[in-house]
Amino acid sequence: MSPSRVQAGTSRGYIIPIGGAEEKIGDSPILRRFVKLCGGKSARIAVIPTASMAADTGSRYERIFADLGAAKVEALPFETRHDGDDEALVERLSEVSGVFLTGGNQLRLSTHLGGTAAARKLRTLNATGVHLAGTSAGAAFLSEHMIAHGDEGGSPKAGRVTLAPGLGLTNRIIIDQHFRQRDRLGRLLTALAYNPFAIGLGLDEDTAAFINPDNIVEVAGSGALTVIDPSALEFSSMDLAHHHDPVCMLGVKLHILVQGASFNLQTREASAGQVAAGKG
């Protein structure tokens, strides 16, 4: 699927993948910034806990966002594919200014919501200015191409990763989460070897990429964002490699960004931004 078309004179909302394990107690800078984007004291946020098997995930985020000052927070129970096509349930998304997808298993998101009215509604909402954030599994699901699962390790290997269709808010990126903590550089490189058009975003825990309507990625949080740009890829041996063989990739560019730095998905240029000024 392709992202919903942004109408002339309007701007799409932010797309905000979070690497998981975000700070949830006290100030919680990433979640507070999300609430502020959604309107602060007038924010109306829908929480979609579909990825999680824990019964209290939705109510826990309801309390977190309420404590951060949101006017209204509601967890929506999209628990089956039938729920994803339930008109009354989908209609409850119409009045929100932000949507938050929790962590868990990203395949629960793709198999429960993929191709449903709820997924179409979420793409339309983002195209009309509603901000969509996801943490961990919820982050992986935001883009068109989603890493479903894969092996850990530092180098790309044939068959190391399995891709599946995601929500499709953007086709510019492939997201991986818990990046440094779970040694996932190799699986993100493998995913990009399959599809060198996209840019890889590897998010550490407690780290977010705030992607604005102009496709500028702004980094927030206590960890790092690894940006992998394969646009100048000179050679890949993916088509020659057997299962589990290491893959040769030449010409890949890599950036490590921390809070205050940014990356332009359009021009593929990185900026140290506030970090260089000592304000990161």
What are the SSEs and their pairings?
Elements: E1 15-18, H1 29-37, E2 44-48, H2 57-67, E3 72-75, H3 81-84, H4 87-91, E4 98-101, H5 106-113, H6 117-127, E5 131-135, H7 137-140, E6 145-150, E7 161-165, E8 173-176, H8 185-194, E9 199-203, E10 207-211, E11 216-221, E12 225-229, E13 235-236, E14 249-250, E15 253-257, E16 262-264, E17 269-271
Parallel strand pairs: 1-5, 2-3, 2-4, 4-5, 8-9
Antiparallel strand pairs: 1-10, 6-7, 9-12, 10-11, 11-16, 12-15, 13-14, 16-17
Outline:
With 280 residues, this protein is of the alpha/beta class. The chain has helices at residues 29-37, 57-67, 81-84, 87-91, 106-113, 117-127, 137-140, 185-194; strands spanning 15-18, 44-48, 72-75, 98-101, 131-135, 145-150, 161-165, 173-176, 199-203, 207-211, 216-221, 225-229, 235-236, 249-250, 253-257, 262-264, 269-271.
